[in-house]
Amino acid sequence: MYVCRTVSVSRCICIGIVATVMALALHPARADETPRPVECNAAPRTLNDIVDLAAQPAPAASPPARSGEPAAPEAIEAATATLRASIACVNANRPLAAFAYFTDGYLSRAFGGANTDALGHLRVALTRTPAPAEPGDQLSLRSISDVTIPAAGELLMTAVTVNADGVYTDRLLLREVDGRWLIDQVISLDPPPPSLIGATPTP
Questions:
Q1: N or C: the chain end with fewer CB closer than 10 Å?
Q2: Which residues contact 141 (CB under 8 A, 6 or more apart)?
Q3: What is the mean pLDDT of residues 14-42?
Q4: Is the pLDDT score of 197 beyond 80?
Q5: For residue 44, what are the domain limits?
Q6: 55 domain-assigned
Q7: Which residues contact 178 (CB under 8 A, 6 or more apart)?
């Protein structure tokens, strides 16, 4: 069996899986809970879906605007539901189900181009029988804040997640696709590990 080491939204979807209310717009949402593996009920993507997306030219991930209008309560609720559901599938160690909450563009960038090795890791992971992550490894959603609409069909939020290894902060860009909010970019706001500070990049 394989177990996803849940670290943060970005790290778990990109690494662990393959190796990751107007007042809510101004104040953190009350979200200190662990989405349970049994809550993962998405129709999973197929491996062929991922292979096809990896073969396509990946759309550029443009930096999202830094500001925007406060998101409407219904948009915040729907986007939060997307995030919670994706974490539930991460905690269930069901990568293809978790990918149902991400855009085609995100998956194309994650598995295509220079990231083709990730596709091989995913193939290997899918040959194993999945088992939910241990309670201490499961990811909890601590808060959601700064929820704005930078452009039509886009939503930005800051999500704080936590597990036994630490607390992680990510800025998420979601896009509205066929009436659903899907995660398109995940930008870590955590400082780099001390071992990487001042390190000389490898050519």
A1: C
A2: 31, 32, 33, 34, 35, 83, 84, 87, 159, 160, 161
A3: 58
A4: no
A5: 9-191
A6: yes
A7: none
Alpha helix (H) ranges present in the chain?
A: 9-11, 47-55, 73-91, 95-98, 104-111, 116-125
Work out how many domains the chain is built from and give that number.
1
40 part of a folded domain: yes
Tell me the Cα Rg of the chain.
Answer: 16
Whole-number Cα distances in Å, 37 to 57, 80, 193:
33, 17, 30
Rounded to 10 deg, the angle between the 47-55 and 104-111 helix axes is 80
Residue 112 lies in a domain: yes
Q: Which pTM was predicted?
A: 0.81
Decide: helix, strand or coil at residue 144.
strand
- Confirm whether 36 is domain-assigned: yes
pLDDT tens-digit profile of 127-181? Answer: 988 899 998 899 999 999 999 999 999 999 999 999 988 999 999 999 999 999 9
Please say whether the beta carbons of 180 and 85 come within 8 A: no
CB 40 within 8 A of CB 97: yes
Does residue 7 or residue 160 have the better pLDDT? 160
Say what the pLDDT of residue 68 is.
Answer: 84
